[in-house]
Design a protein that fits this description.
By secondary structure, the chain is mainly α. The chain contains 21 helices and two strands. It has a domain of about 240 residues. It is globular.
């Protein structure tokens, strides 16, 4: 065996198997920091975790380059991931609580909310890893070879940098040694909560999407084992997946109100976007699983199913009540005589009632147009009316006098959108299916959204996108329904 190739294989083994000792050493440093509050030990722990993160990002490339088609290599990489995350994420959860009690004296409600959110995030990561291991193992027992390159590996690529960032933030010790290493680490330890929330919400959505991806890939084998060719039982089990996504839609809406109460309007909007994604996914999953059509042995299918009622209830919460609630929270906090004379409560009630009326019409409509909505759909209306609230909040943070204008504008937009939702002759294209048919456009919009979310112009970007969709019927009415209804 050539000496160069032998060295490369040894380097690969070091990268794959060297992460657990580094992470375990970082955990010991974290325990020491909580006990003695030593900046030097804190710096050492962050450096060890940074090396582990670097190993995690490059070990896959080395394994593919120097140990191709090695089942042991892929299995070892997954086991090391599971071991590393089982150590580091519980440590981060404890560290955030320690920082809240012993470092941040007189902490705010926003910091307490962040600590609770970190706890939920860490639990989600561990649940996802256990669920993924179970689904892969069951598929292997059924003779199905797992895919080596999966979309769900995106979660693994993001998990190590997020763990490093949260570790540096949780165990940050002020007044460290005057070195350039500590200077850069202290910058990470003092990142604003707004930025941390954005990163953590994106990471949470990726983990939930990874769980859904494993259900889609390997769920069939579990159903074959459970149902024993009983199609009715199989159908009842399958309905759990779209219904779970529907419940997540409603939970995301309620969570966005919780963030809005804390003054985190940007985070509330991001979570509302997550609610629209779950609303898109539950319909797509139901159609893919064949649940939108009644079972063949049913003589008289029900006109309204439980799934449809649950979907309408979730949409009513997330896209009718929640936007009205957020509008009232934000605008009522504006201290301006002109804005204070606006009947904010009645406007919020009017919007929510008109949104519910639109959902009732959508459910009872006997002549739907495939691929189109009659009237502005409630998810698009919710994103439209909340987006200028981001601009208002940014103007208030910048001490700009334009926040009075935006307060009046948001009030008028709420009433206009509420009416537009119920003008049924106007046809709006199904935006989710349009994105599925145009993946390049979807990727460009996603990249632009990620770029703008870290700037003061995120609200302007969102409002521009939704305003273009508002005017889209001027162009999209020419599209034939059979083309608009295509999923891909």
């Amino acid at each position: 065996m050539p000496g160069e190739n032998l060295i490369s294989r040894r380097v690969t083994a070091l990268l794959v198997y060297g992460r657990p000792p580094l992470v375990f050493a970082a955990m010991l440093c974290a325990v020491s920091v909580m006990w003695w509050r030593s900046p030097v030990v804190y710096t050492l722990g962050v450096v060890l975790l940074f090396i582990s993160m670097t190993f995690d990002l490059v070990d896959g490339w080395f394994a593919a380059r120097y140990r191709p088609d090695s089942p042991m290599g892929h299995l070892a990489e997954r086991i090391m991931d599971k071991l590393v995350y089982s150590i580091i994420f519980p440590v981060i959860a404890v560290g955030v609580m320690w920082r809240l009690v012993f470092i941040l004296e007189g902490h705010t409600r926003g910091e307490l909310l962040h600590a609770i959110f970190i706890l939920i995030l860490c639990i989600t990561v561990l649940v996802r890893d256990s669920f993924a291991a179970f689904m892969r193992g069951f598929a292997l027992r059924q003779g199905q070879e797992p895919e080596m390159r999966e979309f769900t590996r995106l979660r693994t690529a993001v998990a190590a940098p997020v763990a490093f960032l949260l570790y540096a933030h949780a165990f940050y010790v002020p007044e460290g040694p005057p070195s350039w290493v500590y200077f850069w680490i202290s910058w990470l330890g003092n990142l604003p909560l707004r930025l941390l929330f954005v990163i953590e919400i994106v990471f949470l959505v990726i983990n939930l999407g990874s769980i859904a991806g494993y259900c889609r890939k390997y769920g069939t084998y579990c159903l074959d084992e459970l149902c024993l060719e009983n199609e009715m039982l199989r159908r009842k089990i399958l309905t759990f997946f779209p219904n779970s996504l529907t419940v997540m839609n409603a939970m995301m809406g309620i969570l966005s109100v919780f963030f809005a109460y804390q003054g985190r309007i940007r985070e509330a909007y991001l979570i509302l976007i997550g609610a629209t994604l779950f609303d898109k996914l539950d319909g797509a999953v139901a159609r893919r699983l064949g649940l939108t059509e009644p079972p063949e042995e049913t003589d008289q299918p029900r006109k309204i199913s439980l799934g449809a009622l649950l979907d309408d209830l979730a949409d009513g919460v997330s896209f009718c009540i929640v936007p009205a609630w957020i509008f009232y929270i934000v605008i009522s906090s504006v201290d301006a005589p002109l804005v204070n004379r606006i009947p904010l409560g009645w406007i919020a009630i009017f919007y929510a009632a008109m949104g519910v009326l639109r959902l009732i019409y959508f459910t009872l409509d006997k002549s739907p147009i495939p691929g189109f909505f009659k009237g502005l759909p409630t998810p698009a209306a919710a994103l439209l009316v909340v987006s200028p609230l981001l601009i208002l909040e940014q103007a208030r943070m910048d001490a700009s006098g334009t926040f009075v204008f935006w307060g009046v504008f948001c009030s008028g937009l709420m009433m206009f959108t509420a009416i537009l939702m119920n003008i049924y002759p106007i046809r709006y294209l199904h935006y989710g299916r349009f994105m599925n048919r145009n993946p390049l456009f979807a990727s460009i919009m996603m990249l632009l959204g990620v770029a703008f979310v870290f700037t003061p112009y995120f609200g302007h970007f969102c409002f521009t996108c939704m305003f273009i969709y508002l005017l889209s019927p001027l162009v999209t009415w020419r599209i034939r329904p059979e083309i608009a209804a295509r999923e891909t």
